[in-house]
TrEMBL record:
This is Uncharacterized protein. It comes from the Bacteria. The lineage of its organism: Bacteria, Pseudomonadati, Bacteroidota, Flavobacteriia, Flavobacteriales.
Length: 131
């Protein structure tokens, strides 16, 4: 995806694939460190956006942190990520239960939990793929 020619401009620098791999590794490590900090939704977004599905276990021991919208985004990104991954039905159940448990907790502590209730409704209606 090229946003406003940024990718085309970046390619002009001819960064080696080895250096790009080093950068991505550093970024992934930073995102994993940030899983225990406010705004950790961004870590889940980054991992999903870069199709880096090797750290689901670390996400599932993290709490959605930050403001209400950040907690919602964490769970929404995790749900999106779970649909992009090749998970067994059991693994999908684990992710959906995590989202349900954390989402239910957020609902209890929020005055207007419409966004999280919408997500909880989506996961209840989610049909498991045939594996």
């Amino acid at each position: 995806m090229d946003r406003d020619g940024i990718y085309t401009h970046y390619k002009k620098f001819k960064i080696s694939q080895d250096l790009e791999k080093i950068w991505i590794t550093e970024l992934v490590n930073l995102k994993l460190i940030n899983l225990d900090k406010k705004g950790n939704w961004n870590s889940v977004y980054f991992l999903n956006h870069h199709s880096n599905f090797n750290h689901l276990d670390k996400i599932l021991i993290s709490e959605p942190l930050g403001k209400y919208w950040e907690k919602c985004a964490f769970l929404e990104e995790l749900f999106a990520m779970s649909k992009n991954m090749r998970l067994s039905k059991n693994e999908i159940h684990i992710v959906l239960n995590f989202i349900s448990d954390k989402g239910t907790s957020i609902v209890k502590n929020t005055k207007n939990p419409t966004r999280i209730k919408d997500l909880l409704a989506k996961i209840k209606q989610y049909e498991l793929p045939d594996n």
